[in-house]
Amino acid sequence: MQKRGEEQALSSQPGGDAQRGRRQRRGVRALHELLALLAPPTCTACRAPLAAAGPLLCPACTRALPWLRGPGCPRCGLPRHRRGGCPAAGAAFALSWAPLAYEGVARDLVQALKFRGALPVARLMAAQVAAGLPPALRGTDAVVPVPAHAGRRRRRGFDPAGVLARALAARLGLPLAPCLARGGGRRQVGAGKAQRRDPGRLAVVARAEPPRRALLVDDVHTTGATLDACAAALAAGGSGWIAAVTYARTL
Ligand SMILES: [Zn+2]
Ligand SMILES: [Zn+2]
User: Fold this and answer.
1) How far apart are CA 177 and CA 188, in angstroms?
2) What dihedral angle (degrees, nearest 10) is formed by the CA atoms of 36, 51, 59, 248?
3) Which of 61, 131, 241, 246 has the highest CB neighbour number within 10 Å of its CB?
4) Rounded distance from Cα 229 to ligand 2 centre (Å)
5) Residue 96, number of CB atoms within 10 A of its CB
6) How confident is the model at residue 16 (pLDDT cuts 50, 70, 90)?
């Protein structure tokens, strides 16, 4: 609106000024075209130039993705831990799984999504999650994103877990059920240890009726306290079975 106003003002000025305005606009357009030539597509992880636009990772980063191979613990998603030492033994989710370790290129991608707003990265992550999703985590009724802190979402303008959950729901052909919200310090039934220590930080409530079999989605599984708080809220809201899936798992 303001720009059109300026243009009109320029063109209504007599002779030299209008010409100068047109020259300036042509100059700006040329500068943009030049910048596009000077800034070819780069790898989302290492920022090396890519031969073509399209793939988000360079071949070296694609090879370096830290896949978690082999059967890990189905409950906590760790590749291994000592017997009886499952950190998710008392969790409100039945299973949790991540295709990658939270390190190297996988961490670079999560950071790109989180801090540089690289939304196409969410589609790549969703594809990698969907490709390896174990059969036990298939057949859920809907995908539920871990809710973001309202303040953080406002600052970023979007919510990484929500974007990943949406992309994954589309990949899996499941509905998206954004039924959880960060609550205001209310204690939750079945809350994990971390939440009991800091009830305000992790209080989560179900704002709408949750799916019966829920696939809970976050970008990274760290201590599991957030996933546990979300799963507890889903269970309290009526979910009968909850599995948690993340893009990466902290080892
Ligand atoms: Zn790279
Ligand atoms: Zn375990």
Assistant:
1) 20
2) 20
3) 246
4) 17
5) 28
6) low
pLDDT in tens, 141-151: 999 999 988 77
For strands 142-145 and 241-249, give the pairing.
Answer: unpaired
Task: Find the 164 Cα to ligand 1 centroid distance in Å.
Answer: 21
Ligand 2: centre distance to CA 169 (Å) = 26
182, 204 in Cβ contact below 8 A?
Answer: yes
The CATH number for 59-249, chosen from 3.30.310, 1.10.8, 3.40.50, 3.40.462, is 3.40.50
Closest by CA position to 174, among listed 214, 234, 209, 136? 214
CA 71 to CA 126: how far, in whole Å?
20
Phi, psi dihedral angles at 213 (to 5 degrees)? -110, 110
Instruction: Read off φ and ψ for residue 218, nearest 5 degrees.
Output: -140, 170
Nearest bound ligand to the CA of residue 88? 2
* 43-69 pLDDT tens trace: 999 999 988 777 899 999 999 999 998
The CA distance from 126 to 218, in Å, is: 11
Q: Which two tokens stand for residue 6?
A: 């300026």
d(CA 237, CA 121): 32
Give the start-to-end residue ranges of the domains of the chain.
Answer: 2-38, 59-249
